[in-house]
Amino acid sequence: MGSRIFSFLYDPEVKGDGSLVGVGDVISQQLIERRGLRRHSVRRTARMMSIGFFFVGPVIGSWYKVLDRIVVGGGKSAAMKKMLVDQVRSSWVTLFLGACLLSSFWGRVFSPPL
Which chain regions cross the lipid bilayer (predicted)? Predict the structure, then answer.
């Protein structure tokens, strides 16, 4: 049973999501913040990668599988319907949960602007 808990990590999409989030953090630190290799925060990159592996990959991947069952078919109209359903039903939830997760990683309390 214990091995099934983390079985989602074997999914290639989850590995890709975690890796992309990590690469994005490295690009951010090196090209945007211009930290250099000595001041690069490996801990921050590891935190960001864990968000990709344990939140972005499984949650978004599962949502898109559900979305494929909700909106069937192919072509432009199905793609537009999927985008509309995604934006109305999922994007705000995902953004809120992601903001809460990031806030907790940095030791802050998330309070959405009202």
Answer: 45-64, 90-110
